Amino acid sequence: MNTGITRRALLALLPGVLAARKRRPRTHGAFVAFVDPATEAWVLRLTALSSASVLPAPQNRFISSRRRFLLFSSDLNGAMAPFRLDLHNGKLHHLAETRHLAIRSLYLDPKERSVYFVDSGVLKNADVSGRETHTVAEGVSAFGMSDSGSVFIVARQRRLFHLNSRQPIAEDAAFGPLVSPDGTGCLFGREARKSREFWYVPLAPLGKPKLLASGRIWNPFWSPRGKNLMFLRDVETKHAVLSEIHEVNPETGAERKLDPTSGYAAFAPNADASVFVGASRSMVQPNIILLLRSMARELTLCEHGATHPACVSPVFSADSRWIFFQSDREGKSALYAMDVEKFVSPT
What we know:
This protein is mainly β.
């Protein structure tokens, strides 16, 4: 199943794309297609530049695998609020009124019927049609859930709790929680003086927190099966500081290098972790890059041109046919997409 923009819609948007000599921007509804100056590949801008658009945290589920839409935050109506973008026609749907939305907190529930988010310290739930909004819990700064939705962890004043039982999980959590896909464990982070720490708590049964990794580390992702934690680590050499993708096993604590990178500020795996998409932190070549693991090769897709590369947040669609990212390359933060089916096998 194609979970992104249909190939038919793309062809309608780009008539004669292969034979075109004048690569001028083309529009189709709210979408604008243009040729990337670095690679001459077609890129789709999904949102207008009249308002700022921001993707949720890349670890969150926010792209539908069934109904071709994604969730994002926008100040289209004045204040930042949750929106749904239909990927087959570009229509926007305002989902809820908010006062102080945590713009990266949006999380699509497993049944893809509602979105969870934090607004003014209140965890709320709104259906994706935008008809109803409900309060779930108060005094919440962050939250996370398993793929099935059966395990739900919330953060209150740097302490983690099970949402329903209110059972305490961990203390002094500077960021997180990030619940493993199968719900058996939970990651959270702590800030040290000159480094960051990733901690893990077994949930079934509940255990004590244990340190998984520390140092110049960021951008954690659970592996697709939830058995290992992947993240970016800066490694110093005699000549440079290298950015590498590492993996650690929560049960054994064993860490290993998965792949070197050309210097990623952010990355995300596809559905089977066979391919990674990264945002380069280079000021000279601020690119979106595919890392083809089977070939140990990087492929430049386009420029992201973002002021803050770590906020580009590149992610795959569930079927790995599309990537989505955000950038302020044209002034305001907007959402972009690229078709990568010719490089990546569908998942």
